[in-house]
Amino acid sequence: MPITADHIRTTIAAYLDQHPEDKGELGVVLGLIEDGDDLTSRKTLPGHVTAGAILVDPDGRILHILHNAAQKWLLPGGHLEPSDQTLLQAAGRELAEETGIPPHVVTPHGETPLHIDIHPIDANPAKDEPAHQHFDFRFLFRTTADIGQLQTEEVSDAAWRNLDQITDPQLRSRIAAALR
């Protein structure tokens, strides 16, 4: 069964129980759900849900990928697929697809996102996509594995980076707290 609006709403509620300070920002997402927008479709504007992975190795380093379209170092992640049953599963699928790290060597930290980030996405004329927003549900995972075969259609490189290289201060502090 694909991800539903109820699943997104329940995931946000669990997240806000842990991070009530984010309620104002996530009110936009909840409002769109209440309006009946299908936030699981990448065609939904002004934005839609994506799922991301914060993968940590035994040394506390975080995996980053060089995304081809954005030409930026990002956390692994992407759009939801109809086969995804949960946001956590979608994040794990994206992680495996982009990095080649098999799911059986990755352990989720929990079922609640560590961070939900709302960020702008530039227009992509090649895909006939206008500028929009991603509501990125980021889940923490741990692994002892190394990078596998990259999904070269979307990713041109991958690297483990130290926690201090995470530029978002809220994300950096949440990862640090989870690693304690």
What does this structure look like?
The chain is of the alpha+beta class. The chain is built from 4 helices and 8 strands; from the N terminus they run ααββββαββββα. Strands 1, 4, 5, 6 and 7 form a 5-stranded mixed beta sheet that branches. Strands 3-2-8 form a 3-stranded antiparallel beta sheet, with no helix packed on it. Helix 1 runs antiparallel to helix 2. It is globular and about 45 Å long. The model has no long low-confidence stretch (mean pLDDT 95).
Summarize the structure.
It is built from 4 helices and 8 strands; from the N terminus they run H-H-E-E-E-E-H-E-E-E-E-H. It is an alpha+beta fold and 180 residues long.
Task: Compute the number of strand runs.
Answer: 8
β-strand percent reads 25-35%
Q: What is the string of helix and strand elements? A: HHEEEEHEEEEH
In the predicted model, the low-confidence regions spanning at least 5 consecutive residues are none
- Tell me the Rg in angstroms: 16 Å
| Largest sheet descriptor | 5 strands, mixed
- Helical amount among residues, as a percent range? 25-40%
How many helical elements? 4
| End-to-end distance | 36 Å
- The general outline is globular
Q: Please state the average pLDDT score.
A: 95
Structural class: alpha+beta
